[in-house]
Amino acid sequence: MNGIEVTGASVERGDQILTPAALDFVAQLQRQFRSRRDELLAQRAVRRAELARTHRLDFLPDTAEIRAGDWRVAPVPPDLTDRRVEITGPTERKMTINALNSGAKVWLADLEDANTPHWANVVEGQVNLWDAVREQISFSSPEGKTYQLRTDAPLATIVVRPRGWHLDERHILVDGQPSVGALVDFGLHFFHNASELIERGSGPYFYLPKMESHHEARLWNDVFGYAQLALGIPYGSVRATVLIETIPAAFEMEEILYELRDHASGLNAGRWDYLFSIIKNFRDAGPEFVLPDRAAVTMTAPFMRAYTELLVTTCHRRGAFAMGGMAAFIPSRRDPEVNERALEKVRQDKEREAADGFDGSWVAHPDLVPICVEVFDRVLGDRPNQLDRLRPEVAVSAADLLDIAATGGAVTEAGLRLNVDVGLRYIEAWLRGNGAAAIHNLMEDAATAEISRSQIWQWVHNEVTLADTGEPVTAELVRRIVEEELAGIRVELGAEAFEAGRFKEARELFERVALADDFADFLTVPALDLID
């Protein structure tokens, strides 16, 4: 069909999504923008090579006029004016309903890190978005429980997160080439739902992940302009919030907002991917860039404070929202003591964000929504946000953003074991099709596996010694711990459940991306070869 081939298996109601007109629109996007996407990915490699040589990043001299200029992003749409709590989760049917019903102001409908790109997940996610936009979604569990949308309170506003620029969709070929996953996710949702959302008083809203430069933001802005024109959608209907979750993007916050200024609504501070990006980019920069156990890297670490302070200040100066990070805790119905300790940490984290000027924050579970609302209510009062809080006293330098050495903390055997355990468990769940995995009372996504395996890579290749045992972190030690942790998981799950899982493949992939001499940019890229 006009150079378009769908190679994925049939999915229930897939014909409602993969219509000839929708696929033709996706193909238009591929033909128009794929080559630029490819060029920008190549530029990432060039920039990384320069970082390997200099071990430094700085604000761009060529864009100083943008940073000094007097400009603001487009006005805020009414249903994005108040974003004090946003709930994140994949577009799985039951979780979609729970998120919309949660009392959160926004649902981040995640087609990226909390979703595995199994073909069935890709198509079913679009089916569920179609139903959710039209408020006609329901679900009956195998146990006979029915889930429906509430009618006694407003539903969360839908903001869709497509895949990052680096991932392809191999089940849709355009002119013989795999499609760009981001353009598939964006294109199908936009084609089917943009007009419907506008008629309902909302709009096509997006979260944009894994951005590394303002050139990548410009590409997204051009995609938005092209798509709106092609489908007769009023220009400026799209709103995009960008996740500042890579260290290069942290040095281009102003420029990213400027490129998207007709469509921008804010920036978000994504903790785990940001740490992963620091390791990835400065992995060969010596001991001053070696991070301790990830549990020791809190948001109060000097370099993390610099990052969030710069984000809030940049956003408010430009009339954009500053969105805080994730509270990933899943309350336990069996252990009230665990709940009490964890919920207090969640409360403290949200109090810090609200006091620092963030306009809202993320949670992963509906039970955390009331805590986040309560905290932001105390700070906001009757105001919907803190856009008027400019904080001109904040000044963040390049050195502040790169002051990793001031973090403190140590690398311990417990930290190493946690990275191995969580990395294995998450990858195994991902291979089975579950991108939002509950592990040790936390809702984990791909960013957790990335920080886990990249820390191990960094420790091995920088000859780090464990502070508590004095043992050097070597590939042999990691493999021994992998064996021990897998044995523990086997006992926990039982032999039958363990063997029915995909732990053998998870182990092979984890050891490859954690221990190989060449650092894999994203573990999800080689993982694609292991899924349908």
CATH level-two architecture of the largest domain? Alpha-Beta Barrel
- CATH fold field value of the largest domain: TIM Barrel
Tell me the radius of gyration: 22 Å
User: What overall geometry do the principal axes of the alpha carbons give?
Assistant: globular
Major beta sheet, specifics? 8 strands, parallel
The number of helical runs is 20
The overall strand count is 15
Number of domains as seen in the coordinates: 2
Q: For the terminal residues, how far apart are their CA atoms?
A: 23 Å
The overall pLDDT average reads 96
Structural class: alpha/beta
Q: Strand fraction band? A: 5-15%
- What is the CATH homologous superfamily assignment of the largest domain? Malate synthase, domain 3
Low-confidence residue ranges = none
Quick structural summary:
This protein has helices at residues 14-17, 20-54, 64-68, 93-101, 119-133, 181-199, 214-231, 247-250, 253-259, 271-281, 302-317, 336-356, 369-380, 398-401, 413-431, 446-461, 475-493, 495-500, 503-515, 524-527; strands at 4-6, 85-90, 106-110, 138-140, 146-148, 157-161, 168-174, 177-180, 205-208, 239-244, 264-269, 321-327, 360-363, 437-439, 442-444.
